[in-house]
Amino acid sequence: MFVTKPTRSLTPRGLLNHPFTLYLIFLVLMLLKLMWLHHNLHAYNITMGLLDKVIAIGSLLLLSFWTWWLPRRGMIISLVILNLLLTALIYADMVYYRYFQDFLTIPVLMQARQVDSLGDSIATLIYASDLWFFVDWLVILPYAAILLFSKRNRRGRSSAYSNGLNSYSSNSRKSTMRRRLTAGSIALVLGLGLAVGPIYFYSKTWAKGLFDNNWWNVSMYNVTGLLAFHGYDLYNYAKDQLGSGPEVDPADLEQAEAYFASRQQADPLKDAMFGKYKGSNVIIVQGEAFMNFMIGQSIGGQEITPHFNELMKESQYYSHFYHQTGQGRTSDADFGANISLHPLSVGSAFVRYADHSYDSLPSILKDHGYSTNVFHAYESGFWNRYTMYQNMKYDKFYSKNDFEQDDPLGWSLSDESFFRQSVEKMSSEVTQPFYSFLITLSSHHPYALPQDKQQLDVGEFKGTMFGNYLQSVHYVDSALGNMVEDLKNRGLWDKTIFMFYGDHDNSIKEQPKYEKFLGRPLNDLDMEQIMNEVPLLVHLPDGAAAGTIDEPAGQLDITPSVLHLLGISDQSYYHMGNDVYDGSSRMVVLRSGAFTDSSLFYIPSEDYIYDSGSCYDLSTGTKTDINACRSGHDEATKRLHVSDTVNTFDLISRFREQQAPASES
């Protein structure tokens, strides 16, 4: 008696349930979502061409090839789970990009508490149209449940062979397993070829050097696509964390040593301002999302920042002062201002390298007899501040629990109450001379103030986030005015170097809003400056040297400049900022790779290609020959790389150890 092979005809239902069909549906859906993400980025000069789609398909194959090696039920479950996870990742990247103009990374996920605390800010970044991103779940989840749990499926293939012999069933299972292994292996090899091949080609042609010198995740995404970008990020994180940790490349170490040797061997320039305010108190206020474009502006006949404008008359106002932040945003501004190194290209140094050695402003001033204190009416663990501030040698961190919550507002305490209570602590608890660093909160995204605190008529912007932003800045300006009066009444104003600067932009990118507000058309240079310029105001104890300074400056310049005023030489410290008082020419480098000096402004393209960027002549505000910015671009690239090397490999600690024998002898 012969046993014939049981057969199953490929009906439309059978074709739909075939593993290859299910796998193909998974690939198509994920590719469509990646394409939708790219469409929603609106990233300048970045396209998703044929090779980019090939990379995306290859990445999907590499993420899912193993599902072929599972039994049919396992394959279905795995593909559904992969769909859920990848959809969540892609959508999270899209929402994160809307606020930060960047992508999620492992270091950012380590800071998940920061994301959780964004609360209302995240809600404003989620659009009703985003529901289409998840519409496939309405079909996939029920379909998967039917396939997995229906009686017909539970009987599975065994019923199809119930009339056969056991020996035949065994052979059939082996044959099925061989087919699964073969299919999975083909998917793996195909995925490697489709993903790695084009990326390798890019890295050897127009994107040469990207993996050695990446300073912005968007440029990496442009080469690798989203999924391979996350794979590369995971690889870098594992490389940094596993084993004894990464070792600095000797060439990078030599470059960093040479850079700081050159700075430290230069003859210091000491003018009449050097040491003029020795022994003065220092108060620095970091204003949340406080931008420069609305300084001196009015709406409906009402000044937006009247107290700041009045204070400008007796202070130095830097009209082209730039924030130099990256993914770490507020913590990056703090890092740049108080440590004078560039923030990281990925994540926050506060979180990633809080145990490394730095020449921080509070530690230097503490060595010179100052009491050092930081004030921020929020959770002490946010951005890992508690740990980082201990390393920076602050005597005390006044955080949320140290303030009476007598006027709750937004994330925590109103800036009005925060300033009042902070000044009271400086007056009664802190020993002079002191350094006090204050971080505000009331003008945080999404800028929603209660009605009783809205004192500005924003006219046609009412009900928009832009209007809410102007409203919140007006409120912070009022709180700043009251703080200055309080310092005067307590006799501290004339004994204090007082600085106020903004930490970063407001994440409102719509150019038409700024054009309507400013009443003029804007070009790319205008928008680049608007989104990167924050105000810096410096009031000296005697009100000297007041006026507007048009030369560029940045957050990294704060520490060297404060030390200059106090008569403390910056020469022996590992800082990268400019001393704005020594009269030397200066360049300001942004984390994106943009840079400016007194004559040129270079805006990099997001595709990472130098020639795709724009070089502007600041005297005319128009584009000039791209080659005019070449030397500045090379210097900016070097500075960012040196800073990243120093931060990542804790080189300041190594440099100090190398210097120790010489100092001891």
Features:
eight-stranded mixed beta sheet; 2 domains; 10% strand; five-stranded antiparallel beta sheet; disordered N terminus; 49% helix; metal-binding; globular; alpha/beta; Alkaline Phosphatase, subunit A; 665 residues; manganese; 25 helices
Average pLDDT, rounded to a whole number, is 88
CATH topology description of the largest domain: Alkaline Phosphatase, subunit A
The number of strands is 19
Give the name of the CATH superfamily of the largest domain: Alkaline Phosphatase, subunit A
Provide the helix percentage: 40-55%
**DSSP helix count?**
25
Biggest β-sheet, characterized? Answer: 8 strands, mixed
Structural class given helices, strands, pairing? alpha/beta
Q: How many structural domains are formed by the residues?
A: 2
Q: What CATH architecture of the largest domain do you see?
A: 3-Layer(aba) Sandwich
Give the C-alpha Rg: 29 Å
For the biggest β-sheet, the strand order reads 7-6-10-1-11-12-4-13
Terminal CA distance reads 100 Å
Question: What is the CATH first-level class name of the largest domain?
Answer: Alpha Beta
Poorly predicted tracts of residues:
1-7, 156-165
* Shape field: globular
Description:
49% of the residues lie in helices and 10% in strands. The protein has 665 residues and is α/β, with parallel strands linked by helices. It has 2 domains: 12-148 and 174-242, no CATH class; 274-581, Alkaline Phosphatase, subunit A (3-Layer(aba) Sandwich), CATH 3.40.720. The strands form 5 sheets. Strands 7-6-10-1-11-12-4-13 form an 8-stranded mixed beta sheet, with helices on both faces. Strands 15-16-17-18-19 form a 5-stranded antiparallel beta sheet, covered by helices on one side. Strands 2-3 form a two-stranded antiparallel sheet. A hairpin with a 5-residue loop joins strand 15 (588-589) and strand 16 (595-596). Helix 2 (19-41) runs parallel beside helix 4 (72-100). The longest helix is centred in the first third of the chain and has 39 residues, at 166-204. It starts with 11 loop residues before the first helix and ends with a helix. The model is unreliable at 1-7 and 156-165 (pLDDT under 50).
